[in-house]
Amino acid sequence: MDVAAASGFNEPKPVPNATFKNLNGDDIILSRFKGKILLINFWGTWCVPCLQEIPDLVELSHRFKSEGLEVVGIAIDSGRPEDIRKFMSEHGMDYLVLIGELGVVKSRFHVIGFPTSLLIDRDGMIRKRYVGPQTEKVLKVDVKSLL
Amino acid sequence: MSNLSSKKSVKERVNANRWIWLAKPKVWVGVILLISGGLIIWAWNAEWTSQNSASELATVVSPSVTKTATAFPKPGNQLAGAASPYLREAALQPVYWLPWSEEAFKRARAEDKPILLDIGAVWCHWCHVMDVESYENPEIARLINKFFIAVKVDMDERPDIDRRYQQAVQVISGGGGWPLTAFLTPDGEIFFGGTYFPPDDRGGRPGLKTLLPRVADAYKTRKEEILAGAAQLTAELKKFAEDSIREGEVSDQLVSAIVNNMAQRFDSVNGGFGTGVKFPSGSAIELALAKYYVDRNPRMLEIATKTLDAMARGGVYDQIGGGFFRYSTDPQWRVPHFEKMNYDNAELLLNYLHAYQATDQGLYKEIALGIMSFLNNVLSDQTNGGFYAHQDADMTREDDGDYYTWTVQEVKNALPDDEAQVILRYYGIRPQGEMRENPAKNVPFIAATPEIIGQELKMPVGKVRQLIDQGKKHLLEARFQRKMPLVDKTIYADRNGMLISAYLDAWQVLGDEQAKGFALKTLDRLLQEAYQEGQGMYHATFEGRTRLHGLLNDQVQMANALLDAFEVTAEQRYLRIAKDLMNYSVEHLWDTQDGGFFDRPQTEKALAALERPFKDYEDNPTSSPNGLAAAVLDRLAYLANDEKYEQKALETIRAFAGSAKGYGHFVASYALAVHYHLNRSAQAVIIGEKGHPKAQTLWKSALTTYRPGKMVAFYDPAVLNLKKLPPAVAGAVKAFGVQGEPRAYVCAGSTCAPPTGDSAEVIRLVKSYGLEKF
Q: How far is Cα of residue B321 from the mean position of the Cα atoms in its chain?
């Protein structure tokens, strides 16, 4: 059975193999997550609707990490790494957060609204795009279908 | 018994007449009697009246003398010290008027007399007529003083009292308006009432000379029935108030139902709503423009523009001096009632500003400027700040719009021949005019275009336009020679809130710096004179005296103005006070049982009808307090970043959602609140140093761009305490610390656009972000 058709997923496309810096300044390339289910969340500390879904992302990460889900936040325009670290600890964000360049996010990932999340399967194919804040309840159904 | 003795329930009666609040007298003839099982309206019949003359009745009904009467000061007219000009005007009348007070009711109980309640206004033509004909008539005054405790109320000063008795009179008589004339039991329960009554019986209608002894007689001889009937009416009104508001689901379908209903009631020929007299519908125009912006449905634009075009051309607009009159007596907007209210002009100013933004039509700008010219010149305290309440319709108590109307000869006397021949055609001034008292008098309206006049007179259009401009100025100068109708200089908080908002908008749309300055000066005056932290706003201030504390409309209209002021100044104190007013409203006015806000605090001390709870969500005559309260709470939730206000907004709109959909334009401000709650407009946060030119440009770009319902907040990191900022703003401020460049963050619905430092991008985002169709 076609997973994409069954869950109303978009036409799968390969995720751009972009590189982002982590909070220590190291380069992290997305292809390193191949073999895992990846939820990339483009967000910013200035973005109210982004803050709204963070608790749900934390919960989702906790629930499915052991089954191969990696939640990766890409922070845009969110200040210095120490500002982001402080923000993460205040909001209990224990998933991976990388720093994104606005230009790259717009041109390669076609993000025009924050938050935007991409659900990527183990083969590195984008299976779903979410615009606006999502709930753990919605996300878990889609993640489960890819497990 | 006539056909008036219908067995319609109170609910049917109120529904049948609901939303019809005519400032025009509708005489109801009759008395109500209670017979077991229901309220019966017994029509007056001429035969019955003729059997007993007033003087005979006066002797039949024995004057009431009670043991406790001496406990009160000698009766007399006690209005001399009143702050209201309407009450002060009546201070020399021979009627022993008392203001609405504990004393009035105590006295009525002690002397066991019914109360004659008059509710009117200083701008109200028929109130003046009744004053002259009846309340200054010694014979009528004697009857009143003998059989009644007379109480006079200014409807502008006491909207809470007016609302309740208007509703009751509508049930009794099928119509409401001013003057309102009601007969109450000593406990303040109404048992009979109407609007205008003549002094003598006229055409089968009872005059006061007949009616007063009749009512007094009924009270004496059938007191039990009257008391029971009044109690039942009060109980039914209470029940009606409870039944007529139903909780329901908040959805876009609800907004669509209201909008469709509004469209059905739209007069496609003349603009406006309905087919009879025409009142302005400020919120309905705002709703139509807001819906047009998101749906591009041409019908919505038509509702707004056809109405505003027709009003701008009609006699309902003061073509010579600017500003709008209260309402039109005909569907074509031709012949108005001439009182000019500040609240109509506030809502219409917003309408014309927004229509100008939506269409770029010069006419709308011209009318907006005309309204402001009238407000600046006549209806405001330019020295201290503050907008006055209204201007009377008449120069004297006997005239009929003489200040504003013209005969052909008056125009010819005022203007040179070449101007006169153009002006007579342009404003449709002919030998036979529209006014009843003097048929030669004309209400100016736009009767012909300059092009047509040019053809008729074989004159270039440019010349015609020039003569119109000159002629208009000369007519205004000639009008200044007439006695200017009285201006009530009371400063009402709710209405000033509306005007402050409208003037701040005028700055955003037209770049009028003076308008912004005056709006802020007015706001600061109101805060100084009529606000106390934690205590809410007072309703009125006049010569340093504040009156009536805690009405919902004052809190929400001022909170709305404060949020507008916060948007254009970035001064945190305005945001703080807006919060304080809404916190006060939630604490003191919220209906903890059924949701929604009461119009006034529910206290045990409330006198008479004020005991009856009242929750308003109709636009009557301006935006409904509950509709606006929801909209303000949603704005506050965003600007103060506090979800509890959003939750309260939802609870507010939910409280009325089950009963609103059939009411069309009458609940437009409520529908607008629901629309914005579900479809968030653009929200822009600008971070930058206030003095930085780029920051200023970004801020101004966001403020001046048209997008109905948008919100703009400016934060200067240099003067802010990060710990006190909403978390998202703090996030943006930290990002600013890295970039060091001003940035705009625009969100709409549930997403945010990529931050930008480009003002053209800000304009694009504010205009269209979140609207995929653009």
A: 21
**Which phi and psi (to 5°) does residue B120 adopt?**
-150, -160
ipTM rounded to 2 decimals? 0.90
Tell me how crowded residue B321 is: count the other CB atoms within 10 A of its CB.
20
The answer for residues whose C-beta is within 8 angstroms of residue B169's C-beta and 6 or more apart is B175, B176, B180, B182, B190, B193, B194, B195
Q: What distance in Å separates the CA atoms of residue A96 and residue A84, rounded to the nearest whole number? A: 12
- Cβ distance B671 to B271 under 8 Å? no
**Is residue B222 located within the same domain as residue B362?**
no
pLDDT of residue A141: 97
* Residues above pLDDT 90, as percent of chain A: 83
Residue of B nearest to A117 (CA): B751
At residue B517, the 3 state secondary structure works out as: helix
Residue B734's pLDDT is 77
Give the mutation candidate from A45, A48, A88 for the B interface (greatest B CB count, under 10 A).
Answer: A48
The one-letter amino acid code at B408 reads V
> Bridge partners of B546?
B541
Residue B534 domain-assigned (yes or no): no
Beta strand A19-22 with B491-492 is unpaired
Strand, coil or helix: what is A46? coil
Q: Which domain holds residue B734?
A: 683-768
In DSSP notation, B583-597 reads HHHHHHHB-TTT-SB
Are B384 and B429 part of one and the same domain?
A: no
Q: CA dihedral defined by B705, B706, B710, B715, rounded to 10 degrees?
A: 10
CA closest to B750 among chain A residues: A132
Binary contact (A47, B747; C-beta < 8 A): yes
Contacts 24+ apart (CB under 8 A), B430-438: B433/B405, B433/B406, B433/B407, B434/B315, B434/B334, B434/B335, B435/B335, B435/B400, B435/B401, B435/B405, B436/B400, B437/B399, B437/B400, B438/B400, B438/B402, B438/B405, B438/B407
Count of domains observed in chain B? 4
CATH architecture group of domain A15-146: 3-Layer(aba) Sandwich (3.40)
Q: Name which of B747, B750, B753 is nearest A112 (Cβ-Cβ).
A: B753
d(CA A87, CA A65): 22
User: Distance (Å) from the C-alpha of residue A43 to the closest C-alpha of chain B?
Assistant: 9
Query: A73: helix, coil or strand?
Result: strand
Q: Tell me, rounded to whole angstroms, the distance of Cα B28 from its chain centroid.
A: 25
Contact B301, B357 (CB under 8 A): no
**How many Cβ atoms from other residues are within 10 Å of residue B16's Cβ?**
12
Please choose, from the candidates B371, B341, B367, the residue with its C-alpha nearest in 3D space to the C-alpha of residue B279: B341
C-beta neighbour count of B756 within 10 angstroms: 17
Contact B482, B395 (CB under 8 A): yes
Nearest to A44 among B641, B731, B739 (CB): B731
Residues of chain B with pLDDT under 70: 1-75, 604, 721-724, 726, 772-774
Of all helices (H) and strands (E), which one includes residue B533? none
Tokens read off for B215: 């009512």
How far apart, in whole angstroms, are the C-alpha atoms of residue B700 and residue B690? 12
Give SS3 for B49: helix
In this structure, the answer to whether residues B232 and B291 fall within a common structural domain is: no
Residues B118 and B232 in one domain: yes
- Quick one: tokens of B8? 């319609």
Per-domain boundaries in chain A: 15-146
Cis check: omega of the bond before B73, within 30 degrees of 0: no
Contacts of B135 (CB under 8 A, 6+ apart): B90, B93, B94, B95, B118, B141, B144
Helix B727-739 to helix A48-64 angle (10° resolution) is 100
Asked if B747 lies within 8 A of A105 by C-beta distance, the reply is: no
- Predicted local distance difference test score (pLDDT) of residue A99: 96
pLDDT tens for B605-647 read 889 999 999 999 999 889 999 999 999 999 999 898 888 999 9
Taking only the tens place, the pLDDT of each residue in B571-586 is 999 999 999 999 999 9
Mutation choice for A interface testing from B646, B723, B734 by most A CBs within 10 A: B734
